[in-house]
Specification:
Elements lengths: L2 E10 L6 E10 L1 E2 L3 E5 L3 E12 L2 E3 L1 E2 L2 E10 L3 H10 L4 E4 L29 H28 L7 H14 L3 H13 L5 H17 L4 H13 L4 H11 L4
Antiparallel strand pairs: 1-2, 1-9, 2-8, 3-7, 4-5, 4-9, 5-6, 5-8
Helix pairs in contact: 2-3, 2-4, 2-5, 5-6, 5-7
Length: 247
């Protein structure tokens, strides 16, 4: 079940090395053992709910309410988390989302399937079945990237709600968590940090959403936008290659 917990205060747990958090559960149900994510404008850490306290009483779960205290076992060094929390503005705890840029090692990750250069000539039925399966996976991943483009077209990063919706889309497309994580990180890492370049990048990405190519009219408008943003032709070409990213 989904939930949203607004953090009002927090402090380090000296004896456990975790985090004590007080706040308001605005919707949903929170349960001991839940895997959670810390969010501001994007997901920046995760952990597990170790204990829940309501009115000084330990409970197994709780629904909407105020003055709720939760004790969280975090998956990164506590001092690192405290630094991230200190720089955040509106901290919200939501169900765990794996669509983040947190550099946690992934064990036993499934090998990626590269179908970009798959030969069409088949030697037997088994090879044909394998190719059909790979094409299906490739189409699903492209659909996921298409939704990533939509989610990041305005801000250049994923908000908590966009991450939540993309997680629902990932499950609907039956894409492995590790593959979705890599697709998200690879795509978002290509978005330019310079504001003018990001504006141009987002414009190109939106043009590519429907047809996967830029029409003549769109090309004229993009050329004018490049001039207004003071971006050179060479740099614009590089940005367009980044925006035309495929699985």
């Amino acid at each position: 079940m989904s939930f949203s917990f607004n953090v009002l205060s927090y402090e380090k747990e000296p004896s456990k090395g975790g985090l004590k958090v007080c706040g308001v559960l605005s919707r949903g149900e929170l349960t001991v053992g839940d895997h959670i994510s810390f969010c501001d404008s994007s997901v920046f850490a995760d952990g597990y709910v170790r204990r829940i306290e309501v009115k000084s009483r330990n409970v197994q779960s709780c629904t909407k309410g105020i003055n709720i205290t939760i004790y969280i076992a975090v998956r990164i060094p506590i001092n690192t988390l405290l630094l991230r929390l200190a720089s955040a503005k509106n901290i919200v705890i939501i169900p765990f989302l794996d669509l983040t840029s947190i550099n946690t090692p992934q064990k036993n990750a499934e090998p990626e399937i590269n179908t970009k250069h798959t030969r069409t000539s088949l030697v037997n039925k088994n090879a044909g079945d394998k190719l059909a399966k790979e094409k299906k996976i490739n189409i699903q991943e492209k659909e996921f990237v298409k939704n990533l483009k939509i989610a990041t077209s305005l801000e250049g990063y994923l908000s908590p709600s966009e991450s939540f919706l993309l997680e629902k889309i990932r499950k609907s497309l039956k894409i492995d968590l590790n593959i979705a994580r890599k697709l998200s990180n690879d795509y978002i890492s290509k978005i330019p940090k310079d504001e003018a370049e990001r504006e141009y990048y987002e414009a190109v990405a939106v043009c590519l959403l429907d047809r996967n190519y830029v029409s003549d009219n769109e090309r004229k408008l993009l050329m004018n936008l490049r001039v207004y943003l003071h971006i050179s032709e060479a740099r614009a070409a590089e940005i367009e290659k980044l925006a035309d990213w495929e699985v």
